[in-house]
Specification:
With about 425 residues, this protein is mainly α. Helices cover about 80% and strands about 0% of the residues. The chain has 2 domains: about 200 residues, Growth Hormone, Chain: A, CATH 1.20.1250.20; about 200 residues, Growth Hormone, Chain: A (Up-down Bundle), CATH 1.20.1250.20. Helix 3 runs parallel beside helix 5, helix 6 runs antiparallel to helix 7 and helix 8 crosses helix 9. The longest helix is centred in the middle third of the chain and has 31 residues. It is globular and about 55 Å long. One of its GO terms (molecular function) is transmembrane transporter activity.
């Protein structure tokens, strides 16, 4: 059964989408540079594993501490200004450690503080971009899928393929060089975003405290079974995937006989699959319906990790990771596109940040679980556990994100009377059966 998402003729992208795509592509390249360079820069300052872990973890803390509140602020602010302001601030911020590196006064605490503030800027940029895109693309579900597919593909290509080797190469020229390169990428992105077309701001709600508005956004997610199902997938998925990631290098070395170069190829196989999955997401949605496609990609992720756990050769492991990456890539296009199509504009920032926060909170638990399982039961046990979690999550959320629920939500969110802004029932005021 084909979802209503795909029953319309293809529409052209508005002119502003090309600039947004270019801005995010350039910024993703800079992110990839810093993602590779920052840990290596930290390694030139200390060999203490806990100190290195602090630098790595600092970038995720803003989502854990301010995720929902950040979404509430984005729903109050102009989203285009929030995006270019966040990028401009991050460009200026990166000049600080770059100057410290040139003056030879760089330290681990400074790197951790920079990582935290970069993460905070990313929280505001990503949430604002997620909320801005539906209005830019006229809340057209099919156009949102195509747009997210292009954005996701560019992000994977830049941050997963081009950025990391570029970061390592630039670091050879000096510790400040990759930081300055990322600063330039943020500056270019900010200038491009500043030229994007304005979109109508959501009708302001009755003046409430920031905490009440944040709670209303979180409540909206938890009371709508479709949105809750979409949020549970990355949350449970992060527990599973971080459990795998924690032991993957050790598993590859001890069980598959893979050295450093081969391990890089394994990760490349997963990223390649992610590009393919992002490219075929719309096709899957057309053939299966968005709800069924999401259930299938979740099941494929679980089966692929099961194949990885049982792999006896590097080739089988690489194939399993490529298949898993493809399923993840398709999911990361279909799920956000659906959420952007059905959530009212005035709630989009809070709903997006709530979903992202759930996923980010789950990640540290997954990493701890993977390490404990490997220590207690053996190196393959985190992989088998991850596969079981993913398959159980697929069974639990299958009815929550079914084609029937998706199509009902799209009809409820369809423009009324030819207007530009969709209407949507608030699950806090309607019964569950009415919402979905």
């Amino acid at each position: 059964m084909t979802s209503d998402v795909h029953k319309v003729r293809k529409s052209p992208f508005p002119a502003g989408f090309g600039r947004l795509w270019t801005a995010q592509t350039v910024s993703s390249l800079g992110d990839g540079v810093t993602h590779a360079a920052l840990p290596l820069i930290a390694l030139t300052l200390t060999r203490d594993p806990m100190a290195l872990a602090v630098v790595t973890a600092a970038g995720t803390l803003p989502w854990l501490l301010f995720g929902v509140l950040g979404g509430a602020l984005v729903d109050r602010w102009d989203r285009r200004r929030t995006m270019w302001g966040a990028d401009a601030a991050r460009a200026v911020l990166l000049a600080v450690p770059a100057a410290a590196a040139m003056l030879d006064v760089l330290s681990v605490p400074l790197l951790a503080a920079v990582a935290f503030l970069l993460g905070l800027g990313g929280l505001f940029f990503d949430t604002a971009a997620t909320a801005y895109l539906p209005d830019l693309l006229r809340r057209d579900p099919a156009l949102l899928e195509r747009g997210n597919s292009r954005l996701r593909g560019a992000q994977t290509a830049m941050s997963g393929f081009a950025g990391p080797p570029a970061g390592s190469a630039l670091l050879a020229l000096g510790r400040a060089v990759p930081l300055l390169a990322d600063a330039m990428s943020f500056l270019v992105s900010a200038l491009l975003v500043r030229t994007l077309p304005g979109v109508p701001r959501p009708v302001p709600e009755a003046r409430e405290s920031l905490f009440r508005q944040a709670r209303a956004g979180a409540s909206y997610v938890f009371r709508d079974r479709l949105l809750l199902g979409l949020a549970l997938r990355p949350a449970v998925g992060n527990i599973a995937f971080l459990g795998v990631e924690t032991v993957l290098a050790l598993f590859a070395h001890d069980r598959l006989g893979i050295e450093t170069f081969g391990y890089g190829l394994l990760l490349t196989a997963e990223a390649t699959g992610g590009l393919l999955g992002a490219g075929i997401a719309s096709f899957l949605g057309r053939r299966l319906g968005t709800g069924t496609a999401l259930t299938c990609t979740a099941a494929v992720e679980g089966l692929a990790i099961l194949g990885l756990a049982a792999a006896a050769t590097p080739y089988v492991a690489g194939l399993a990771l490529a298949v898993c990456g493809a399923a993840m890539g398709a999911t990361m296009v279909l799920a956000p596109s659906l959420r952007q199509a059905i959530v009212p504009a005035h709630l989009m920032g809070r709903v997006a940040s709530t979903s992202r926060m759930l996923a980010m909170c789950a990640a540290p638990f997954g990493a701890f679980l993977g390490g404990w399982l490997a220590t207690t039961y053996g190196i393959r046990s985190p992989l088998y556990t991850a596969a079981s979690l993913l398959l159980a999550m697929t069974a639990i959320t299958a009815t929550m994100t079914s084609n029937r629920r998706v199509e009902a939500a799209l009809r409820a969110a369809a423009p009324a009377g030819g207007g530009n802004h969709p209407v949507s029932k608030d699950p806090a005021k309607e019964s569950e059966s009415d919402v979905v």
